[in-house]
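Example protein as discussed:

>
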Amino acid sequence: MQKILITTGIFPPEIGGPASYAVTIGSHLAKSNFQVTVISYSSVRKSDNDKNLPFKIVRIWKGWPKGIRHLIYFFIVLGQAKKHDIVFSLNAVSAGLPALISSRIRRKKFFVKIVGDYAWEMAIYKNKSPFLINDFQNTTKKGWIKILANIQHRVCNSADRIIVPSKYLAGIVQGWGVGPNKITVIYNGVDFTPSSLSREEARKQVGIPGNIILSSGRLVPWKGFKMLVKIMPKLLEINQFFRLVIVGDGPDRKSLEAMIRNMNLDKKVYLVGRKSKEDLAIYLAASDMFVLNSGYEGFSHQILEAMVAGLPVIASAIGGNKEIVSQGENGFLVRYNDEFNLIEAIKGLWQSPELCKDLSEKGKETAKKFSVERMVEETIRIIR
């Protein structure tokens, strides 16, 4: 029996792509006759759900001071690496660096999954860069951002295999000096069950009347939620019953709330916070269309979940979005933060029920191509 050690930065109950992926891939590997251990930083010391997992989860409490918790994480990874055949990290920095060092000390194979550029994300959070991810790649980095970028590059160049969820991200990683022979594209699988409620029933359940334009994701600058709020007055001229609903949470929440308040859109725009998959399914069932105005997407689960739920999709023509959405066939692609294009795309869908129906059916067919089973099969093939 092959033994796999998975290292990650987040794990449920925390919400995020790497957390969901860790549970999905860990569970499927365990069911495929692998012995799996997952090590993660954690906001809780333990969870009642841990005993129901088909693999072992080791949580490193985030309540420990920085530095101390990172040392604890490293030594636990080092100890566990000795007992496993492969170390598989789900990021290149907080989990990837200790995993790389441990795998080299223990002489184990080291794989890493890259879903974005952590140095760029930190640069945006800290207001250290005005650039989107593509332009950021060619800028001169300084201080802590330079250190983070160097760690990413070192970890990826030292890995035995790098897994990315899109061809777009494969290009980003190659830009870090990594040979293409080390990189494997394995599209993430969508594991999402749509709600059986009718649109009217779902609207009553969420308590929001009107024609809902749904968007979701972390409330961070590059997700473009502020532009969606900005164009609402013009959208209300097209249809006074439009309501913008944003699912998610993050550092931009307070500024978005202030913007909504200052524009007197309290009854027109709703920030509903984080939602479970079951609750998200109800919001999707209640909606008329899904809009993702993002400046960066390595690979968007939100688009696929909307397609599974049968919603017509409008997305920005960036990153991995172009590998999911084909213009005019299963959705619309628009320029990021382009006010005119966003309004026209939403108007076009609203005024064309037959087009919405066609995009909905094509979207469902697209989502079927991105199955969890296919993702797991391709991952196992690489591991073995």
Observations:
- The chain has two domains: 3-189+371-383, 199-368.
- The first strand starts at residue 3 and ends at 8.
- Residues 199-368 form a domain with the Rossmann fold fold (CATH 3.40.50.2000).
